[in-house]
Automatic annotation (TrEMBL):
PANTHER family: CELLULOSE SYNTHASE CATALYTIC SUBUNIT A [UDP-FORMING] (PTHR43867:SF2). Gene3D superfamilies: predicted glycosyltransferase like domains, Spore Coat Polysaccharide Biosynthesis Protein SpsA, Chain A. Residues 1-25 are annotated as: Disordered. InterPro entries: Cell_synth_A, Cellulose_synth, Glyco_trans_2-like, Glycosyltr_2/OpgH_subfam, Nucleotide-diphossugar_trans, PilZ_domain. It is a multi-pass membrane protein. Its cofactor is Mg(2+). CDD domains: CESA_CelA_like (cd06421). This is Cellulose synthase catalytic subunit [UDP-forming]. SUPFAM superfamilies: Nucleotide-diphospho-sugar transferases, PilZ domain-like. It is found in: Cell inner membrane. Keywords: c-di-GMP, Cell inner membrane, Cell membrane, Cellulose biosynthesis, Glycosyltransferase, Membrane, Transferase, Transmembrane, Transmembrane helix. NCBIfam families: CelA (TIGR03030). It holds the Pfam family Glycos_transf_2. The gene is bcsA.
Amino acid sequence: MAQIKRRLSKTEQRRQTRNTDQSDDAGGWDHKLLEAGTPLWASNWLRLAVTLLAALLFTSAMTVNLAVSKQWTFGILCMVVAILLNRIRGRIITVSMVALSVFMSLRYLYWRLTQTLSFTTSLDMTFGCLLLLAEGYAVLMLLCSYFQTLWPLHRRPARLPADSSAWPTVDVYIPTFNEPLQVVRQSVLAATLLDWPADKLRVYVLDDGRRDEFRQFCEQAGVDYLTRPDNAHAKAGNLNAALSRTSGEYIAVFDCDHVTTRSFLQVCMGWFLKDPKMAMVQTPHVFYSPDPFERNLETFRKVPNEGDLFYGVLQNGNDLWNAAFFCGSCAVLRRSALEDVGGVATESVTEDALTALKMSMRGYNTAYLAIPQAAGLATESLGRHVGQRIRWARGMAEIFRRFNPLLIAGLTLPQRLCYLSAMMHFFFGLPRIVFLITPMAYLFFGAQVFHASALMVLAYVVPHLVISSVGASRIQGRFRHSFWSEVYETVLAWYVILPALQAVLFPGSKGFNVTSKGGVIRQSFLDWAMARPYIVLLLINLTGFMVGVAGLIRSPGWPEATSILFNLVWVTYNIMNLSAAAGVASESRQLRLAPRVQIELPAAVIHADGTRIDCQTSDYSHGGLGLVLPEGAPLPEHGDRITVAVLRDDYEDVFPAEVQVCRGRTIGVSFPTLTIAQERAWIGATFSRADSWIASWGRYRPDRPLRSLFEVLGIGMRGFGELFRHLFLGGRERLGRSPADPASDLGTKQS
């Protein structure tokens, strides 16, 4: 715990230094007003009048129609103001930029609704209305995003009583179904190392696979093993079955691949003792292995991944409005509150989010602590990743249909908006597909989806896109780089939209897909089954591009030429994203069952003759360690049996090891003969360190929208090259699913 306090103290100092101007801006106005003595401003009537006047002026300015030249002038001026403001720190500046972004986006949407819908043919109307709905959805999600993220809470841990006898009892649940024991065992052993009184902590493995090897391991590890006669309601049913057979006051839940740090409970539990209405405390999900995007595009630890935005920004914003979500793992729940809402929800396959919603409906509080306290395995293949997102999309759509946050009782207005945003997000597939195919309506059929000139369209749309991009980058830049959302959505759109719509329009049980972890990919290949939709859309866009170029060669008049150029730029952007999607489907080889984590720790190598060489670690995994030896030190040879000491705090752990790799001054060792006690000590010295994940989480270079655009363009070119190589140079045997992972496309089904 001392390690994490030191790390948090340093982080807090950096944050306070970085946000000095923000504090001045955010807190200075009220102070100055009080000093100046403004009794009129204390009047609610005056505040209401000023608010109404501001709203009237906002609406009036938003609805003014300008000629194309004046709109361009106004738009350029607003973009320059936004870019200049973005160079100034301060919370008030951020609020001002968001206000400007909202103004320009609503102005664009108003113009679209009032000036561009005079359709003359059914084809124009069809594509025009689809595009308008897609744009309306995008603006709605932009507004919800601003609402959630404009003023994040950044909650800190609450202090526990000094007397540990006053600490409550905690049950740790680790549910599992079909995951291999090698994935689960380190999570279980890490849970036994939690810094909590031994008589107040019990660890339970909830095995829906009912496997004897798991039972035997639990006996060796000294933890409880629970099963049930059936697998009804999948993970939710598994947790509820354990709830009726255990008695701890609080329940900590970890997915079976998540390895907790020792400090997890000490970080989380203080808020339950401080707030009697606190029902759930959630911490981030971080991963020490790359997901398919990061591995196949080689962006691991370079570009924020798909989930970083939620855990790095959105959850902090939700927490301000008492709407932090339960995410199924790395969280603690109060038993009495969980029982009060009927246990873990079973009405949706996203049981975690629905459980949090029910708690909010009952008036309980939820909290989010943005302090990584556990790490797990990311999905290895694109098929498994997509299968997981399909389940999330279907589950959130089920919740939207049965527990519409705008209609149910018990929520505050901000809570309704936070939950609505989360549910509506998973309908992004349809708008994304509309954006990918709409320019072809003009290039192929001459459909006029905008009843306006291309110059007028650009005069409205460019400021809207540029200012919203700058505003989003300012708020989200640490955890989401510009333009990468389009890549993620392009990859997932085709697969998530049908399950989401089906769950709303044709509800019914479709089973539960367990996202398997811990597999390997023995050779690089193009996952043809997953890439087929992107390839079809890519071919359509490439054809549209050639048709557009041919149209320009015919030397049309200026209005038609500008329309063609407008659509060609749009198609080029689509091609970039679709090529990047194809790059994600080009699976890179992954042979390691145990991914390595980069870390530098003091260590020592002890030879058989007793010679000790002090050195440093370079990385570690569940079953191995990389060591960098000093110059001049004698190097062991492959196959040598040595002893490795790893230092932590003021003592060291010693492990028998075997040398597997020797490269220069770096050696790689494995631990083939560890006992349960030694394996527990190894996890304590590595994965379970209190500061294991804090230093690396969110440590990406700052976002620069233009630089990110060129990065995505480069990824798109690379993806196009990978697609060409696999289709025309690699041979047909390199297409299809991985031979080592035949069921990887949609996970493993558990009914």
